[in-house]
Design goal:
The chain is an all-beta fold and 110 residues long. It is built from no helices and 11 strands. The strands form 2 sheets. Strands 2, 4, 5, 6, 9, 10 and 11 form a 7-stranded mixed β-sheet that branches. A 4-stranded antiparallel β-sheet has the order 1-3-8-7, with no helix packed on it. The protein starts with a strand and ends with a strand.
């Protein structure tokens, strides 16, 4: 059974930094591309970043500010978020194919 558990969200001031974590279990982690999505209130869920075995990909809105990484020993995927903006406020979700975590709330506000 695939399980994805996100942690690390919270309240941060504009320009601040947060690191989200996703603990994965129930599948051969290293074989799968992992993704982060986010959903702001009243908006559709949008893709943020992906990491395959060798490559990373980012939405234009976060490129240069966010970094996705993975640890194939610990079965973890991370999202380092720098220079945060109020428009980054959303619930952030970890994703593998059609499996989703419960999400972690990020609020960027002064």
């Amino acid at each position: 059974q695939v399980q994805l558990v996100e942690t690390g969200g919270g309240l941060v001031q504009p320009g601040g930094t947060l690191r989200l974590s996703c603990a994965a279990s129930g599948f051969t982690f290293r074989s799968y591309t992992m993704r982060w999505y986010r959903q702001a209130r009243g908006k559709e869920r949008e893709w943020v970043a992906s990491i395959s075995r060798y490559d990373t990909y980012y939405a234009d809105s976060v490129k240069g500010r966010f970094t996705i990484s993975r640890d194939n020993v610990k079965n973890m995927v991370y999202l380092e978020m720098n220079s945060l903006k109020p428009e980054d406020t959303a619930v952030y979700y970890c994703n593998r194919a059609d499996s989703w975590g419960q999400g972690t709330q990020v609020i960027v506000s002064s």
